[in-house]
Specification:
The complex is a heterotrimer of chains A (about 200), B (about 775) and C (about 375). With about 200 residues, chain A is of the alpha+beta class. Chain A has six helices and twelve strands. In chain A, strands 1, 4, 7, 8, 9 and 10 form a six-stranded mixed beta sheet that branches. In chain A, strands 2-3 form a two-stranded antiparallel sheet. In chain A, strands 5-6 form a two-stranded antiparallel sheet. In chain A, a hairpin with a 4-residue loop joins β5 (about 105) and β6 (about 110-115). The termini of chain A are far apart. With about 775 residues, chain B is α/β, with parallel strands linked by helices. Chain B is built from 23 helices and 28 strands. In chain B, α8 packs antiparallel against α11. By secondary structure, chain C is mainly alpha-helical. Chain C folds into two domains: about 1-20 and about 305-370, no CATH class; about 25-295, no CATH class. Chain C has helices spanning about 25-55, 65-90, 90-105, 105-110, 115-125, 130-135, 135-160, 195-220, 225, 230-260, 265-280, 290, 295-310, 310-315, 330-340, 355-370, and strands at about 165-170, 175-180, 185-190, 315-320, 325-330. A three-stranded antiparallel beta sheet of chain C has the order 1-2-3. Chain C has a two-stranded antiparallel sheet with strand order 4-5. In chain C, α1 packs antiparallel against α2 (about 65-90), α3 (about 90-105) packs across α13 and α10 packs antiparallel against α11 (about 265-280). Chain C is elongated, with a radius of gyration of 26 Å. The two termini of chain C are about 25 Å apart. The chains are: A alpha+beta (about 200), B alpha/beta (about 775), C mainly alpha (about 375). At the A-C interface, α2, α3, β9 and β10 of A face α3, α6, α9, α13 and α15 of C. Bound molecules: protoporphyrin IX containing FE and iron/sulfur cluster (3 copies). Protoporphyrin IX containing FE (HEM) binds near residues 125, 131, 146 and 287 of chain C. Chain C: InterPro entries: NarG-like_sf. Chain C: Keywords: Membrane, Transmembrane, Transmembrane helix. Chain A: Pfam families: Fer4_11 (PF13247), Fer4_2 (PF12797).
């Protein structure tokens, strides 16, 4: 099934943002960082979550489907590319349709940009910048077998539940060995975690 | 209805998706990635003691323009955000490119030629030493210098300046561990290489925010856990490594020795000691055993503010593991009993027989890139090259012979960095040369430091950016960055690694080596400083260290380039180096034993009172390094963490981002609150990378450990109050007529604290 | 990554649209769309032929040497219209198309902000200000290509269709007159500046295009941002085509002026071949953006007018969790409808900003999957 791809394990992430700086060094979009690093448990713990494009496979790239300008192309190896600069009209449909919250958009340049798995590197067999530098292996590039050889007992999931819809992806997340259900994509009406109200970070007072 | 508020363009998009302000960094044009020729120069990161390997990308014009991960076996391509952004310093617009000079602090700096700056400096040295004696002129070095340069700082002070007053900023960093190591083992370095961590069953990390301060070392910590190790973290804050640890001991700052004594107490009680090891390889165990008897978990629980059961649990997990390891850093070292804290950890490892084996051992994690190498070769007030003592007549004779001077000419031991500042206040030290340090940010009790430096009649500083300290000097010499010269550093494992020169220095910039040699020549000591470059210095250093505990003789540039690093001692050219110490239980003391030391806990120096009821602890954040003179100028890092904050527990009723006045007996400042449950309710935390008026060290106490003279950064008494407005973060200093590179400073004025201590999430401020 | 039925590399434009969802449905819609598109495109082509015949006064003004060019424009029309119809039939483009035209044609809007549409056309289509935000050089180069091509098309298309004619006013003199559809527009002197400009207009256009396309070509070899994933057919061919057309065109002038027509015939054929191929290729590759870009104006006008209706509080969609604005309410509604068309069952998520989506997912992972290391 899965070939060489990124495996994300937020549990190991230390939130250092090396990936954010490294992404900026990637030659295909030098100076601009595409990866997201959030601190979802703000106020409670220092937990952190890196987000790269999941390269959705089924449905194939919702971002591309909602693009009115046919700007987002998918290469034969399943990599969902960033918007073609000649076509993108900067409408932000992709930004708001992506269930994982991935694409960025430069409103002045009328151009969407997003993680393309460091296509300039991966197409030559190098690992993407973020997964190369990640000091913790929270972002790991390789095959499932390579991952499991280093981390006995872990499994991976490419299924994410958004309400009743399950999105399957080309990039995987690490899950405990026994887990079989899709990873929740988020619970819109989640009000408590571990008996605490969910963090209202950034909420307008 | 007319809605003129609506511009034709741009339209709206969600926060964090709509622009790329985080590009920051270099002049925008330099970010374009042209497909021109590039050369990859293998080197290491200039920042922390992990010393990650990296390649610098050099373009066809010979300029450093980027970084590429390098598969060096220390870091296996990993880098932290500091390392990734490090290259941007090299051709940064804020670089100093001409000497700055003024005759009095009332005047502004003016750019002058090298001749004028050197002449003035030498004249001032001669004047002050003639008027007030040789020791009235001091020298302060730094541990981010290559080892060659640290060697040169020591030699320059003693041979050219002929002063006893030389010390360095490692005094603020490592010296407690160094003192403890010397006492217990007779050798000052970590006992095991990082790779040993992968084989341990129980890893204890005390007072180290590994995830932020030594990020790339985390791979070893996680690697050990992947292989089944239990992780114990001792830290008042729930840091990134503490968050997921199997046991997190959130003790009160300043109570480490009580905690470790109690752990040892339980280990003794439960019969988990390694009596065979103790009998064969130690002295002083009976005394230590008797002393820890007085620390039952119930007592320690009270002192440390942790449950007694947790102490028992730690003791059992650590004591029953076949291979256990303890690593510590500044958290237990920055105390008036820093040396003793380290000794309690050493006692714990020794009593359980966890020394000198793969997966079993003890280490301290050096903070600065050359924190290890910087303390080895004589820039410390009481040490000579090869870790020799300046008080030992034999050692003095050896070094005098190598340097070609009379033993009687060699000055006696000087004083520590903080003590030197007190001496400046008293007028005992009237002139100073500082190299590679920024005490205005990094020394405790800013008011005292400022006063001391202000009293200097003459002050010269070497740096490549104008630091806050340099901005207060009379002369500033523009010197090279690490990428413009070659040299070696020793990382936290005492592995010596080679940094290579990636580009020529900018016009007008000289190496520290050249400047020191040139001043020495003008002081009439040229013949003893006839060094062409680092390699010459290194060859002298090798010879000077031959036969000592810290033996570099077998290490050459060629060998380092071939091997990727050699751990000292390495006495001969065919010696493979010594990655692991204490194999077979042998230490470097003449009797080969571990000298265990009795430790009694005592409270921190700054007493609590009704006025100052809480504990202030200080430390680092992942995006910045030490005094921030380098990292506060790099756009990506400023973007990640633009300003300092005060971390408080929600129980104090502050809301996130509210201005909070932090008051100690030394001073006060207003910072935005980062409200989080990840800190003890009775503690507040302030990171220290920023200058006055938002410097953590405005608040800290200049109390020193009597043995190591390390300041007590990690604990002082504090209170917090509501305030009106936060103190602004000043821009990093630049010479008159220039402006700190604005693109890198965009987010500095953000009034809010970061989302989490590691920084702002990428999508929060537009 | 082995995708589920990954689409082939370097696919022609637009097919990223039809993946996923329910394949059967998509396939049948594609077929009906194709038929409809063919019909409309056929009609448009016929219309053009009629216009040519009428405009050239029943082929009296038609220059038979230009027949291949004229035929190419007919094919071009067919191709462009066909591609256009297929494109705007896909759910996302259709909805944006409808919204754009609604905004453009609304009397209400026209009354309230009459300047908005012309201003947007000038900035997004004419001067392409947004390109400056990508890089000033790219903006300048594209402006050269754009105005160069526009100038060339304005001169050549009417000529090939026989709409423009130049006739000498008298048998011998330097006086010329220019006629459109047979009607005299103005007369001019061949030695005058206007005469020179008209005569050399194409040369000027060629120089502009060579400058712009040359820069882009250079960039495509040097800038790693441009080279990543670039494809010959999609990225290089258009530039090479433009340069070939312009260079052969210039050489024609050169041959006429300095070589007394040496090699003229060969060059003329080469030039014609490159133009014809480019025109026929235009609807299918990168050049299709010329037809597609006006969508940017429609989109912008749609958002602009939606936002002008009321205060930001009413007209901007606030993230349901953090309250920060996401986009105009109308744009979010339009997107959600698009997502429902496409049977993407998570359109509710569009009411949350991307960061909150990530934070929600992070929180769910922490509480449901794995809190920490194990
Ligand atoms: C309707 C007006 C037009 C608009 C709004 C427009 C817009 C664009 C945009 C946004 C790009 C991407 C540029 C970049 O990001 O570097 C582009 C590229 C390009 N345009 Fe246009 N364009 C228009 C008309 C034309 C015309 C008339 C031509 C001439 C045939 C043309 C030829 C090109 C070419 C060759 C490129 C590719 C450059 C490359 O290699 O990257 N465009 N256009
Ligand atoms: S994660 Fe988002 S951006 Fe990536 S392919 Fe899926 S929908 Fe597109
Ligand atoms: S912003 Fe660009 S890529 Fe995204 S949907 Fe709109 S046109 Fe497509
Ligand atoms: S961990 Fe230390 S040595 Fe490694 S990149 Fe970061 S600062 Fe540099």
């Amino acid at each position: 099934m899965l070939g060489r791809t990124i495996f994300i394990d937020p549990g190991r992430c230390i939130g250092c943002q090396a990936c954010v700086s490294a992404c900026r060094e990637c030659d295909s979009h030098r100076g601009k960082s595409m990866i997201h690093l959030d601190y979802p448990d703000e106020g409670h713990t220092v937990a952190s979550l890196p987000t790269v494009c999941m390269h959705c496979e089924d449905p194939v790239a919702p971002c591309a489907e909602v693009c009115p300008a046919e700007a987002i192309l998918i290469t034969a190896d399943g990599v969902v590319q960033e918007a073609d600069p000649t076509r993108c009209i900067g409408c932000a449909n992709c930004v708001n349709a992506c269930p994982f919250g991935v694409p960025k958009i430069d409103l002045e340049a009328k151009l969407q940009m997003k993680c393309n798995l460091c296509y300039d590197r991966t197409s030559y067999g190098l690992a993407p910048m973020c997964a190369t530098v990640c000091p913790t292996g929270a972002l790991f590039y390789g095959t499932v077998e390579e991952l499991q050889a280093e981390r006995p007992g872990v499994d991976v999931s490419t299924m994410f539940a958004f309400g009743d819809t399950v999105v399957s992806t080309g990039v995987a997340m690490v899950v405990p060995g026994e887990r079989r259900t899709p990873v929740p994509g988020g619970m819109l009406n989640l009000i408590e975690v571990n008996g605490r109200p969910t963090p209202g970070n950034g909420a307008r007072a | 209805m007319s809605h003129e508020h609506v511009p034709l363009d741009p339209s709206v998009a969600p926060l964090g998706t709509r622009n790329f302000r985080d590009a920051g960094g270099l002049p925008a044009a330099a970010w374009r990635a042209d497909q021109t020729e590039q050369t990859l120069v293998p080197t290491h990161c200039c920042f922390c003691g992990v010393q990650c390997g990296m390649y610098l990308r050099v373009n066809a014009q010979g300029k450093v323009f980027g970084v590429e991960p390098r598969n060096h076996d220390i870091n296996r391509m990993r880098l932290c955000p500091k390392g990734i952004n490090a290259y941007q310093q090299v051709n940064h617009p804020d670089r100093l490119t001409a000497p700055l000079m003024r005759r009095s602090r009332d005047e502004p700096f003016r750019e002058v030629g090298w001749e004028e700056a050197l002449d003035f400096t030498v004249a001032e040295i001669n004047r002050i030493q003639a008027e007030s004696g040789r020791d009235a002129f001091g020298m302060l070095g730094g541990a981010s210098l290559f080892s060659e340069k640290t060697y040169l700082v020591g030699k320059f002070a003693r041979v050219a300046l002929k002063t006893r007053h030389v010390d360095y900023n490692g005094r603020l960093c490592m010296v407690s561990a160094a003192g403890a190591n010397k006492l217990a083992f007779g050798i000052d370095r970590a006992g095991n290489p990082f790779s040993d961590i992968l084989q341990t069953q129980c890893l204890l990390i005390a007072g180290s925010n590994v995830g932020e301060c030594f990020p790339v070392m985390t791979q070893y910590v996680w690697g050990a856990r992947d292989r089944g190790a239990t992780l114990i973290v001792v830290d008042p804050r729930e840091t990134a490594v503490a968050r997921t640890a199997d046991i997190h001991v959130a003790l009160k700052s300043g109570t480490d020795s009580a905690f470790f004594n109690a752990v040892l107490h339980v280990i003794v009680e439960e019969g988990l000691t390694d009596e065979v090891f103790l009998a064969e390889h130690t002295t002083g165990w009976a005394e230590v055993k008797a002393a820890v008897k007085a620390y039952p978990p119930s007592r320690a629980a009270e002192i440390c503010g942790v449950p007694a059961e947790q102490i028992v649990q730690v003791a059992r997990v650590f004591g029953t593991a076949d291979r256990a390891m303890a690593w510590h850093a500044r958290g237990i070292e920055h105390h008036t009993q820093g040396v003793e804290n380290c000794l309690t950890v050493i006692n714990l490892c020794t009593a359980t027989g966890n020394l000198g084996r793969p997966g079993a051992g003890y280490g301290t994690i050096t903070g600065q890139g050359n924190g290890q190498g910087g303390r080895e070769h004589g820039q410390k007030s009481d040490l000579l090259p090869g870790g020799r003592s300046i008080n030992d007549p034999v050692h003095r004779r050896q070094v005098a012979a190598i340097w070609g001077i009379e033993e009687s000419e060699l000055p006696q031991a000087g004083t520590s960095m903080m003590e030197m500042v007190w001496q400046m206040q008293r007028g005992e030290i009237r002139g100073l040369i500082g190299v590679c340090n920024n005490p205005f940010v990094s020394l405790p009790n800013y008011a005292v430091v400022k006063d001391g430096y202000d009293k200097l009649e003459f002050h010269a500083q070497f740096d490549f950016f104008l630091s806050e300290t340099a901005a207060n000097a009379h002369v500033v010499f523009p010197v090279t960055t690490w990428a413009e010269d070659e040299g070696v550093m020793a990382n936290a494992e005492a592995r010596v690694v080679k940094h290579n020169k990636a580009q020529e220095p900018p016009e007008g910039v000289r190496t520290d080596t050249w400047v020191m040699c040139e001043i020495a020549r003008r002081l009439g000591q040229g013949s003893k400083f006839a060094f062409e470059g680092s390699k010459d210095v290194f060859d002298e250093l090798r010879r000077a260290s031959a036969g000592t505990v810290i033996d570099y003789y077998g290490i050459t540039y060629e060998r380092l380039e071939e091997t990727g690093g050699i751990a000292w001692p390495c006495p001969s050219l065919d010696h493979p180096g010594t990655p692991r110490l204490f194999e077979g239980g042998r230490t470097s003391h003449p009797d080969g034993k571990v000298h265990m030391q009795v430790v009694e806990w005592h409270p921190p120096a700054d007493p609590y009172s009704d006025e100052y009821p809480m504990t202030l602890t200080t430390g680092r954040t992942v995006a910045h390094f030490l005094s921030g003179n380098q990292t506060r100028r790099l756009g990506g890092l400023v973007e990640q963490t633009p300003r300092p904050w005060v971390e408080v527990h929600p129980s104090h009723g502050f809301r996130n981002g509210e201005p909070v006045r932090v008051v100690t007996r030394r001073g006060s400042e207003v910072l935005p609150a980062l409200v989080t449950e990840a800190i003890r309710p009775d503690h507040v935390f302030v990171p220290y990378h920023w200058p006055y008026p938002v410097a953590a060290n405005v608040l800290t106490v200049d109390a020193l450990d009597p043995r190591s003279k390390i300041p007590e950064y990690k604990v002082c008494a504090v209170r917090i109050e509501r305030a009106e407005a936060i103190d602004p973060v000043p821009a990093p200093p630049v010479p008159p007529g220039r402006e700190a590179y604005p693109e890198a400073q965009v987010s500095r004025t953000d009034p809010l604290p970061p989302t989490s201590p590691q920084g702002r999430g990428t999508a929060e401020r537009g | 990554m082995a995708g589920t039925a990954p689409p082939p590399q370097g696919r022609p434009i637009g097919d990223s649209q039809v993946e996923g969802g329910a394949p059967g449905v998509v396939a049948s819609t594609t077929r009906t769309t194709a038929v409809r598109a063919s019909l409309i495109a056929g009609a448009a082509s016929v219309l053009l032929v009629v216009a040519i015949v009428l405009g050239s006064r029943l082929l009296r003004d038609f220059d038979s040497a230009l027949v291949p060019y004229a035929v190419a424009t007919v094919f071009l029309t067919f191709g462009v219209v066909y591609r256009y119809v297929v494109w705007v039939s896909a759910p996302a483009a259709r909805r944006m198309f409808v919204q754009g035209w609604k905004a453009a044609l609304s009397w209400e809007n026209l009354k309230r902000s009459p300047a908005a549409l012309p201003k947007m056309i000038a900035t997004y289509l004419g001067f392409q200000k947004f390109l400056g935000a990508r890089s000033h050089a790219r903006w300048a180069a594209h402006q050269l290509i754009f105005w160069g091509c526009l100038l060339a098309a304005a001169i050549t298309f009417p000529l090939t269709w026989g709409w423009f004619t130049f006739t000498s006013a008298s048998a011998a003199g330097p006086g010329y007159e220019m006629r459109l559809w047979g009607l005299r527009l103005f007369g001019f002197d061949s030695g005058s500046f206007l005469g020179w400009a008209l005569y050399h207009g194409l040369d000027l256009a060629a120089v502009m295009v060579i400058g712009g396309a040359g820069y882009f070509l250079w960039r495509r070899m040097r800038d790693r941002a441009a080279t990543t994933g670039q494809r010959f057919g999609y990225d290089f061919l258009p530039l090479l085509a433009l340069i070939t057309i312009s260079v052969t065109g210039l050489l024609l002038t050169f041959s006429e002026m300095f070589l007394h027509g040496g090699g003229y015939e060969f060059l003329a054929i080469l030039h014609m071949a490159s133009v014809v191929l480019t025109l026929v290729y235009l609807p299918f590759g990168k050049f299709f953006h010329i037809v597609q870009r006006p969508a940017a104006v429609g989109m912008q006008l749609f958002k602009y007018t939606a936002r002008r209706k009321g205060s930001d509080d009413q007209e901007l969609q606030a993230c349901k969790r953090c309250g920060q604005p996401i986009d105009t309410v109308a744009a979010v509604d339009n997107l959600r409808a698009t997502m429902r068309d496409l049977k993407l069952g998570f359109d509710e998520w569009a009411e949350y900003c991307p960061r909150c989506k990530r934070v929600l997912r992070g929180t769910a992972y922490l509480s449901n999957v794995k809190r920490g290391f194990k």
